[in-house]
Each structure stands twice: as C-alpha cells, then as structure tokens.
Amino acid sequence: MAQIGYARISTGDQNLDLQRDALNHAGCEHTFEDVASGAKAERTGLVQAMAFLRPGDVLTVWRLDRLARSLPHLIEVLNDLEQRGCGFRSLTESIDTTTPAGRLTFHLFGALGQFERDIIRERTLAGLAAAVARGRKGGRKPVMTPEKQQRAQQLIAQGLSVREAATRLKISKTVLYRELQRKRGGNGS
After folding, report:
1. Does residue 131 fall inside a structural domain?
2. I want to staple 89 with a disulfide (CB 3.0 to 4.6 A). Which of 26, 49, 60, 183 is the partner?
3. Beta pairing, strands 58-61 & 87-90
4. Which part of the chain is the Resolvase/invertase-type recombinase catalytic domain (predicted)?
5. Whole-angstrom Cα distance, residue 162 to residue 178?
6. Which domain holds residue 171?
7. What span, in angstroms and rounded, lies between the C-alpha atoms of 11 and 37?
8. DSSP letter at 59?
9. What is the CATH number for 60?
C-alpha cells in the first residue's frame, strides 16, 4: 500500500511548500501537484495522480478543498477511488477511508450530497411551477415572429433568395427554411 499525495494551489502567487511538507510528513511516496483553480474540472496533476494509483494505494491530500471543487465532485472522486480499491485520506479533516470511521464519514458525505441534489431539484421544480402559475413560459423566445414570417414571404415573393431574405431579417437561413416548410405543411412542397 502506497500513499500518493496530491497538492493544489489556485495561483502562482501561492506556495505549495506547506502542503508538500504535510504530505511528506504523512509518508507520501509520490506527490502530484497543480497550480489551477479548484473550479477547473480537468487538472493535469489530479489526472496523473488518479492514473498512478493502484489497488490498495491511498490518495492523500492536505485538505478536502485541495481535491474537490464541490461536494458532488468530492463524492464522485471518492466513489472512483472506492471502485478502484483505493483509499482516501485528508490530513486536516482527519478522514481516512481505510478505517471504519473514515468509511462512515465518506458515506455521510454521500448522503449529504444526495440530499443537496434533492433540495436543488425541489427548488427548481417549485420555481418552474410558480413561473407557470404566473403565466410565464420557459425557454428561448422564438426567433421567428409573425411579423418576420410575413416580411420573409414578401421578400421571397419579390425575388430574393431564402439566404438573402434571412440576412435582411437577421435570422439564420435554417430557421427561415424550417418556418417556410412548416407553413407549407411540413411536406416540402
């Protein structure tokens, strides 16, 4: 079983020394590093660390926020580690999934993550229902208004091509073709 370290700072102005020292003191054999925002999904050092891990290895970080950009992302990474037979350790929060208490903590994170997703979904559905009740309709507004439809037909009747008419109306020719086909009953005649 090897301990593999991962350290991250957000900007080049910051310093990795504190994390390096803590990971070395914890016994990490290799440490992968990133200088990247935590919001960035693809981090080269993290990808390399994950690829380096073998079953039985433990990914070790100084603090949880150095690894994951959000609770759902943390759960995703920890699930991936668990499926690959790897452990996880956070030094500052004293989480170690190779112990029963650490596995319990991980499962609590999973439950909290699911709870967070459910709450967000409920709020979204309630907001949509409230908007519908007030007569609001979601989605993009149609590009092709009845006025533009009428003007397009006039321009085409005057001899302009569909492309030229679309350019004058500041819409795409695809939208205009689709609308013209819909007006004709959708059979292309």
Report:
1. no
2. 60
3. parallel
4. 2-135
5. 11
6. 146-183
7. 7
8. E
9. 3.40.50.1390
Say if residue 104 is in the same domain as residue 46: yes
Q: Which residues contact 56 (CB under 8 A, 6 or more apart)?
A: 1, 2, 85, 86, 87
Q: In the annotation, is 10 catalytic?
A: yes
104 sits in which H/E element: helix 100-133
* pLDDT value at residue 43: 83
Q: Which residues contact 148 (CB under 8 A, 6 or more apart)?
A: 169, 171
Q: Which of 10, 37, 70, 189 is catalytic?
A: 10
In contact, 61 and 94? CB cutoff 8 Å: no
The answer to whether 89 touches 98, Cβ cutoff 8 Å, is yes
Q: Give me the pLDDT at residue 39, please.
A: 65
Give residue-wise pLDDT tens across range 33-72: 988 776 666 788 999 999 999 999 999 999 988 888 777 8
Q: Has residue 74 been placed in a domain?
A: yes
pLDDT at 20 over 50: yes
Tokens linked to 132:
């519908």
**pTM score, two decimals?**
0.60
Q: Produce one character per residue of 100-134: b if its CB has 16 or more CB atoms within 10 Å, e if not.
A: eebbebbeebbeebeeeeeeeeeeeeeeeeeeeee
